[in-house]
Amino acid sequence: MIEVVISALVLASMYGLIAIGISLTWASIGMLNLAQGFIFTAGGYTAWLYAQYAEGWGLEGVGLSAGVLIFGMLGSALAGLFVGAIAFLPLQDRDNFRTRSLIATLAISLIGTQIWLILFGPQNKPLPPVFGEGRIEIGPAGMSYQQLGTIIVASVMLALVILWMRSSRRGLQMRAMMMDPLGAAVVGVSVRSTGMRVLAISGALTGLSSVLLAQVFFVSPTSGVQPLTTGLIISLAGGLGSIPGTVAAAGLIGLAEALTARYLQQSLVPFVLFAIVVLILIFRPRGLGGLLEDVRE
Amino acid sequence: MSETPRLVGRRAWRPHWPVNSTRVFKRRRWPGTKRSMLKLSGRYNPKTLRREMVLTDKKPLFWSVGLLALLLLPLGIASERFFTMFGIICIYAAINVMWTLIIGTAGLQSFATLATVGVGAYGAGYLSVTYAIPWPLMLLVGAVLGGLMGWIISLPARRLDGLYYALLTLGLSEFMRNFVTQSDELGGKFNGALFGVGRIIPSDLLTTRLGQSLLYLTAFIALLIALAVYRWVNGGRTGILLRAAATSKEDEAFASALGIDFNKERTRVFIIASAMLGFLGAFYATYIGGTSLQLFSLELLLLLLAMIVIGGLGRAEGAVVGTVIVVGITQWFTDWGPWRIVLVGVLALASVLFTRNGLFGLKAQIEEIRDRRKALYRAGITSRYAEFLPQQAPEIHDKSAIVGRVFERSLRDRLRSWISPELIAEHEAKPLGQHSDRLERMLNYFRKAPIPDKYVVYCEVPFESYRVVALSGLPGVPPRIVDDKKYASLDEAYHAVFLRRVNDLRAH
Fold it and tell me: Can you give the pLDDT at residue B47?
């Protein structure tokens, strides 16, 4: 049972980061960033490139691990800015922005997959284990360093982002945009620069989850699809724009996935997730958090 | 014509010939309905004055030419490459047309298209492989499964709106892929591929040219069926009702005020389209003799979306033409490798960034840009349109009215420059009779002024008292008296009228 909870927590922290990225982007600039899969892979490949060079330089241990994490986030943040430059800045003040930016991000993810294929080939790229190998035994159950590390790093990162959004001037601007974009613009918040900042931050979160997920899976051109869809489902269930709702939904979905995989069948996981989300949405059409009841309409 | 006029009461009765210049031909209609075959309008050509018929709606023409080309091109060339390419074009175009029905007519932003197609394909394929059911039954099973799937995924659409629903359905394909990979019956062992699905054309015929042509024909018929369904739903009562609601920006309250159960109609269209998608999935399985996991890949979904976006969202012709373009690129330049997908992506991106609604929205967009430029240009040359605002000028049908006003204005300008004390003195000296050329021209201009508010002389007492009055221009409405001056002689009164008119000319 404890193992299920641990595995649920790991899944929740990995997918939750992506979901929060999607959620933040939607709430502040009204863009559904479906290029999140592309951003995800960008982080993975940047981290992999760094790891290749670092091995050449003879880096090991903490230097290598921290570098992989940081470069993964950096690569994804840059990819987020790139997506913003293409799908957000030119379309931002045009009519039908939401549908058009949605299609634009989808087109970017279509192109991105092929670009990765051209640059890195179809092979899976492994990342070095960031948290070392080994297990820690707590009472009756144990967890691997990787699981522990994933949970801790994800929670710390999330806490930092929330803290920054609560306490800093920039965070205040972002929250103002989430509450009312027009009002924020009226009081002098730059929609464009704040939007790009949001994209960079959600990119960084996605990059972190990319590195964490690459500990289990590999980096490949299409490795962003599965996390993207799960992230979408979670952000939808959590209520787009609500961080507490998204965290709760991530926990719920992670638990459901872990439970289904353990006691039912792995192949049923998608259906269970889908059913849960549909149920949540039927009772709360704006998700668990549901704070954007009328703001975005 | 030969009928002689007879008297009816006090007026001569003449036969009345209906004058309807637009009825220059007999309109043919579909038997049993009031629908015309082609939307023709008759007119007399304003230049040659000949009777002519104008095809108001040229779409049927383009459709038939395009579909004929789609049918004859591969049959004529008859190379395997063309058969493959055009077969794929037909099937994807059919899928895209149904997707257009969902997005455009039903107004549901659903990405569950390929998932539905896959359900039809895998369901029918599985039954065919396991129980060897014949192909008509396969198609039926596909349609039923698709409709069922459509009903299930339309349930959340009642509560969710727009992009939330798009998000929910985007993940569906990925889920289906996982499910297929992990279930052994559906070919999980062979990486999700089912082999040996029953085919419409017997497989020993498939190696011949005739078999290939027949196979292609089946794909073409599938496209025709999809287009017919699109026409039936979109042009039928349901489609018209839904589009009536869509004009008010998805205002469902407005729709219900019109008496439309928006959700119900929407769900119905969605289920019909989904059943058709399942049918197409089953057809796809029989067409290639199997199924593959490629149906559920995000990449294929995005390619389909690119086709729709490049062609123009919400239009059947856009869906078909976009499919031809994208499949043409991906199937023709196979040696480009991944770059061709990049090209498609760049095209899709460009059409989102630079056009309002893809290829078929381009015409309206260009026309609007042109009109705006025109208006700006006209605003720069105000003098050309005299009395009219320059923006108004394009809306005036009778261009000679504009020319007339321009002439009037230049005439007034010239006459105004002639006004001088000498001229006035000349008129005062001799209001009637021979005048100088300039005065004569000026008086001519004054004489042809329109009747309303025209100054005339009113005789109160002959040879004693005259006044200046202004005509009302309306029958039965008396002239108004412009001032209380009285003139003893007619010549004085003439001159007073002249002075008033000169004053008005100056002020104009």
Answer: 82
Domain map of chain B by residue range? Answer: 1-57, 81-295, 297-360, 366-415, 419-507
Judged by DSSP in three states, B208 sits in: coil
**φ, ψ at B112 (rounded to 5°):** -85, 10
Do the chains contact at B179 and A267, CB–CB below 8 Å? yes
User: In the predicted model, what is the mean pLDDT of residues B290-301?
Assistant: 84
Only one residue has tokens 């609007």, namely: B368
pLDDT for residue B95 is more than 90? yes
C-alpha to C-alpha distance for B347 and B355, rounded to whole angstroms: 11
Chain A residue numbers with beta carbons less than 8 Å from the beta carbon of B99 are none
Q: Among partner residues A117, A226, A232, which is closest to B338 by beta-carbon distance?
A: A117
With beta carbons under 8 A apart, name residues in chain A contacting B174: 225-226, 229, 270
Alpha carbon of B355: minimum distance to chain A alpha carbons (Å)? 10
131-170 in chain B: CB under 8 A from chain A: 155-156, 159-164, 166-168, 170
- Write out the E strands in chain A: 135-138, 141-144
Query: What separation in angstroms does the CA of B156 have from each of A19, A287, B161, B201, B507?
Result: 20, 13, 9, 40, 72
pLDDT at B314: 82
- Between vectors from CA A219 to CA A158 and to CA A159, what angle results, nearest 5°? 5
Residues B135 and B140: their CA atoms lie apart, in Å, by 9
* CB-based contact B297:B304 (threshold 8 Å): no
The C-alpha atoms of residue A103 and residue B312 are separated, in whole angstroms, by: 12
Cα–Cα distance measured from residue B35 to residue B27, given in angstroms and rounded to the nearest whole number: 10
The rounded distance, in Å, linking the Cα atoms of B470 and A168 is 78
Give the up-direction half-sphere exposure of residue B153: CA atoms within 13 A in the CB hemisphere: 34
* Interchain CB distance below 8 Å, B302 and A110: yes
**Within an 8 Å CB–CB cutoff, is residue B246 touching chain A?**
no
Domain ranges of chain A: 2-283
Residue type, B311: G
Instruction: Name the closest residue on chain A to residue B167, using Cα atoms.
Output: A232
B346 at interface of A, judged by CB pairs closer than 8 A: yes
Are A90 and B353 a contacting pair at CB < 8 A? yes
8 Å CB contact between B42 and B54: yes
Residue numbers in B near A98 (CB within 8 A): 162-163
Report CB contact under 8 Å: B170, A277.
no
CA-nearest residue to A272 within chain B is: B175
Query: Taking CB atoms and an 8 Å limit, are A236 and B353 in contact across chains?
Result: no
CA torsion B388-B392-B394-B400 (nearest 10°) is -30
**A34 vs B: CB within 8 A:** yes
Q: pLDDT at residue B247 above 70?
A: no
CB B39 within 8 A of CB B27: no
Output the CA–CA distances (angstroms, integers) from residue B220 to A208, B89, B174, B244, in the order listed: 49, 9, 29, 32
ipTM: 0.86
- Which residue has 């559920």 as its token pair? B296
Lowest mean pLDDT among A80-89, B136-145, B197-206, B333-342: B197-206
The bridge status of strand B455-461 relative to strand B51-55 is: unpaired
**Is residue B431 a contact partner of residue B443, using CB atoms and an 8 Å limit?**
no
Put simply, whether A280 touches B (Cβ < 8 Å) is no
Q: Say yes or no: A121 contacts chain B, CB-CB below 8 A.
A: no
Establish if A223 touches chain B: CB-CB under 8 angstroms: no
A79 and A204 in contact (C-beta within 8 Å)?
no
Residue B139 has pLDDT above 60, yes or no: yes
In terms of phi and psi (left: phi > 0; alpha: psi -120 to 50; beta: otherwise), the region of B456 is beta
Fold of A2-283: ABC transporter involved in vitamin B12 uptake, BtuC (1.10.3470)
Give the model confidence (pLDDT) of A195-233 as tens digits: 999 999 999 999 999 988 888 788 888 888 888 888 888
The residue type found at B276 is: M
